[in-house]
Amino acid sequence: MLEKMNEFFDKRIEEYDAHMRDTIERYDEFYEHVIQPIEKLSEPKVLILGCGTGAEAEFLFEKHPNAQVTCYDLSNEMLQMFSKKFSNRNIELRHESYFNLDEENIYDCVIAVMTMHHWDHSEKLSLYSRISRVLKSEGMYIEGDYYVTLENEMKYLNNRTEKLDQVDKNMFYHIDIPFHHTTQENLLMQCGFKDFQRIYVHGEKEVHVVTCDKFTKLLENN
Length: 222
Known about the structure:
It is built from nine helices and seven strands, in the order αααβαβαββαβααββα. It is an alpha/beta fold. The protein has a seven-stranded mixed sheet, sandwiched between helices. The longest helix is centred in the C-terminal third of the chain and has 15 residues, at 150-164.
């Protein structure tokens, strides 16, 4: 039975951190690579999408204790735990969908870890366009997730279509549809990013980073 996205995570709050450590082999190594591209920045302004209980924030604050961090998540339980963990940090928590993101030229970096594998092509195009707009020129988008072969990508997408035929499509449901890394690259390039780099790959888990290319898009529009 399909579960609504927020309810899925609310129900699993107690075991969530332990589950993620079990799921992500070389957990520390994975998250260190998520934060590695930001290390050279000074007191960055960072947006975390689908922040959960704050795994990436923990590694971020180790490197940048004075970072300004804004977080989106649908799960109120997750956000409450996040708030307890980082009550002494400069954080802003938003209990809403990151599909509502509508700011412009605000952040040095946007991070999304283990959350984008829930969305199809059109949804990702919408999200990546929003992320491109919210970043400062030459700002970075870092995504850490799990990725599959092109054949399995199609299997996941077909399975999702069948499941969504049975429910209200206006709601967010917890369904995994990981993509191949070339699909990710193509979608990101369409939304104003450049320099796609796979900076960490281990099994099906990887981290990649792209840079917002607003200057080129400005020239193309003139």
